[in-house]
Every structure is written in structure tokens, then in C-alpha cells.
Amino acid sequence: MKYEIVSLKEKIVVGVSAITGNDDPNMGKTIAGLWEELYQGGINKTIKNKANEYAIGLYSDYKDNKYLVTAGNEVCKAENEGLTIRKIPAGKYAKFSIEGHMEKAVAEAWNKIWEMDLDRSYEADFEEYLNSDFDNAKIDIYISLK
After folding, report:
1. Which domains, ranges and CATH numbers included, belong to the chain?
2. How far apart are CA 77 and CA 48, in angstroms?
């Protein structure tokens, strides 16, 4: 799977979160529930100071085979009470650009990424959804590197 090495500036993400892990049998349901809460639950409309309209799925706080998943948006300034605020640190990332059915393409890409020998830092990995076309999604996945 092809990728490029990029340097990113710090980003602030505001959204809804839950803790899960790859060995959690409810992982898919947990993550889907966050996206549902963000959009069908109306949270997305309440996020202030959005940097753009791209949705972000952030994976952070890795510990003991678990991590915090945040579904939200990048903001210029965090001013939302009651929502999760997480920073994506500036640094070096492997960037994977994928296209296809939103859920299927992302799941397939992650399966391949987990098998790759990347020098991961496990600080913050994220998906940036560049459009909202469920069947023909354009998504960039960023993996934090050491």
C-alpha cells in the first residue's frame, strides 16, 4: 500500500469520544455510534470555529491495546463545552490516500496499515474525510511516525 511522508502542523479536534481497541468485539459498533451521534445526534452543527468541513476520525491515547476514538472536526479554537478536545501533534506522518465505499475502504486500509512495518509513534492517527459521498469517499489516513 503506497503512502507519502508528510509533516503536519498541530491540529485541534473537537467531537465525541469513546475508548475501544482492536480486540474489542464491539469496536465497530462503538465507532459507528460516535459517527451517528456526531451527525444524526446533531453534535456536528454545534461545533464552533471549524477550520473546514472535513470530518476527522482521531485515534489517540493508546494504552494497553486500547485507544480513544474521537469523531469530530478540526477547529481553529476550541470553545465547545461538553465535547472532547484533542490535539493532533505537529510532526511526521505517513499519509495514505484512499477512495471508495466509506466504511469498506477505511476498514480495508486499516487492516493493511496494521500489518505494515511502520515506525509508529502511536501519538495520534487519524482519518480525514474529504467529501461526504458514502459510496465514492475520498479519505486521507495519517499515521504518526517517530
Report:
1. 4-144 (3.20.80.10)
2. 8
